[in-house]
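Practice problem 4.
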């Protein structure tokens, strides 16, 4: 499988081929994309911004992280959307756990 050229641009360095990941769906569809860089300032900033917006306003992952996965990592949209949904589920479960713990401890949020 080759990457969709309209979705992203591969780095121009001809000497070092970019590391690619391939994931295969249950229906046999193979998705190939760039191996995401770990620890990059841009990726960390976008993830922090998306996580903050999600925590504060309930928005952010789809608006911030999803485009970065599609354009920055050349990730196919179905894989990026699945990753986005997984992050939202983890965020929702974490928020629910914190709320249940606060209820169990008798914290009402009014500061009293």
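Answer key:
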């Amino acid at each position: 499988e080759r990457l969709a050229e309209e979705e992203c641009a591969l780095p121009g360095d001809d000497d070092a081929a970019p590391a690619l990941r391939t994931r295969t769906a249950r229906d046999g569809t193979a998705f190939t994309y760039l191996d995401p860089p770990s620890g990059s300032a841009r990726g960390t900033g976008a993830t922090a911004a998306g996580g903050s917006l999600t925590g504060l306003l309930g928005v952010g992952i789809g608006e911030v992280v999803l485009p970065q996965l599609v354009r920055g990592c050349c990730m196919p949209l179905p894989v990026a959307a699945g990753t986005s949904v997984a992050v939202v589920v983890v965020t929702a479960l974490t928020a629910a756990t914190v709320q249940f713990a606060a209820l169990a401890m008798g914290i009402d949020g009014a500061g009293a």
